[in-house]
UniProtKB/TrEMBL annotation:
Protein name: McrBC 5-methylcytosine restriction system component
InterPro entries according to UniProt: McrC (IPR019292), McrC_bac (IPR014407)
PANTHER family: PROTEIN MCRC (PTHR38733), TYPE IV METHYL-DIRECTED RESTRICTION ENZYME ECOKMCRBC (PTHR38733:SF1)
GO biological process, one term: DNA restriction-modification system
Any Pfam family hit: McrBC
Originating species: Bifidobacterium magnum
Length: 355
């Protein structure tokens, strides 16, 4: 990568499309800044998001409490009350639910802020900002990131504003490395390929949804074209991005690829990753078979994040009447250039009117 700071700043723009709730007012302060490392980018997004949430109020959930009280509250714990009586304490042991801020959502956010606060690469500016918001979490515990069950978090309409914050935390935790001290972590200096692939894929889907409402944009499942109707044990085919015009007769299937190397082979023998090409061929042919025959167009595109390799794929192949192309997207350009590259793809496949 040629300029790490440009890519780091583009990660914010990519996340703003991948996580639409990052776009509200206040986050433009983040997009206008320059970041030299990923720690400061995470800290800036987290600080801005937490400040917005504090203005709304931290989410309070019900937590089970068990205390000896002078009056009855909730359910009486008979055994606990008998122990109090035997100890000559004029108390009633009670079990009750109480609204409090010490719930898993706030615990995740406090843990993420704490980890960033103690990273050596986090700048003093963001350390101070993180310290300013920590008092709002005085009554909130931290949590072991490895114990978080992301798929079962209690998210609903009363706390939906936490979604973007939790998305940032999840990406941050995915880049943690355990240290030699038990219970402490070190954040990697940059996001790994797996995390970047996730952001890249969701960014492409989010960008086309927002910037090209004239198209039907989805991550649709593609049915297998089988002659005997039997699909048992066949793997699911789900596209990363599928673009369709309003009439439904023109389709472009995009598969997002983020690799350290875009091509296979050594020396002068460079080839496209065979598994990727076979997969796209299957997508295109099965999608085409599911459409009405006649005047229909189905195309496929493998869209790689551009690397520093000398050989970069830029070809289109007409395979049994359907076009499959292999392109790269340069994430080391200023974001308007990235947007122009994506818009050009739409113009090429759907005409100037769609761009």
């Amino acid at each position: 990568m040629r300029d790490k700071s440009i890519l780091i700043n583009n990660i914010y723009h990519m996340l703003s499309y991948a996580l639409p709730s990052l776009r509200p007012a206040g986050m433009e302060k983040v997009s206008a800044q320059r970041f030299d490392n990923i720690h400061d980018l995470f800290a800036a997004m987290l600080v801005q998001g937490i400040r917005r949430q504090i203005k709304r109020g931290l989410y309070r959930g019900y937590a089970n409490r068990h205390e000896s009280l002078p009056t009855v509250r909730g359910k009486i714990d008979v055994q606990g009350t008998m122990r109090d009586r035997l100890a000559q304490r004029q108390r009633v042991s009670c079990e009750f639910d109480e609204l409090c801020e010490n719930n898993v959502l706030n615990q995740i956010i406090k843990t993420a802020a704490t980890i960033l606060l103690y990273q050596s690469d986090t700048s003093d500016t963001y350390r101070r900002a993180l310290k300013q918001i920590m008092p709002f979490f005085d009554h909130v515990n931290t949590i072991d990131p490895s114990n978080i069950r992301w798929s079962s978090l209690p998210l609903h309409r009363n706390n939906h504003t936490y979604r973007a914050l939790l998305g940032i935390c999840q990406l941050l935790f995915a880049g943690l490395l355990p240290t030699e001290h038990a219970g402490t972590y070190r954040l990697q200096s940059f996001l790994g390929d797996r995390q970047m692939h996730y952001i890249y894929e969701k960014f492409l889907l989010g960008y086309y949804r927002k910037e090209h409402p004239e198209l039907v944009v989805s991550a649709a499942h593609i049915p297998w074209a089988v002659d005997n109707g039997l699909t048992t044990m066949l793997p699911a085919m789900r596209s990363d991005v599928m673009l369709e015009n309003a009439a439904g007769d023109t389709v472009l299937i995009i598969d997002a690829k983020y690799y350290a190397r875009t091509m296979s082979g050594n020396y002068d023998a460079h080839t496209i990753h065979s598994a990727n090409l076979y997969q796209m061929f299957a997508y295109v042919k099965n999608k085409a078979a599911s459409m009405e025959p006649g005047n229909r167009t189905v195309s496929g595109m493998l869209l790689y994040a551009r690397t520093d390799e000398e050989a970069q794929p830029d070809n289109s192949y007409l395979m049994q009447g359907d076009m499959i192309s292999v392109r790269t997207l340069d994430l080391n350009r200023e974001f308007p250039h990235i947007a122009a590259q994506l818009d050009a793809i739409v113009a090429q496949h759907f005409g100037k009117a769609a761009a």
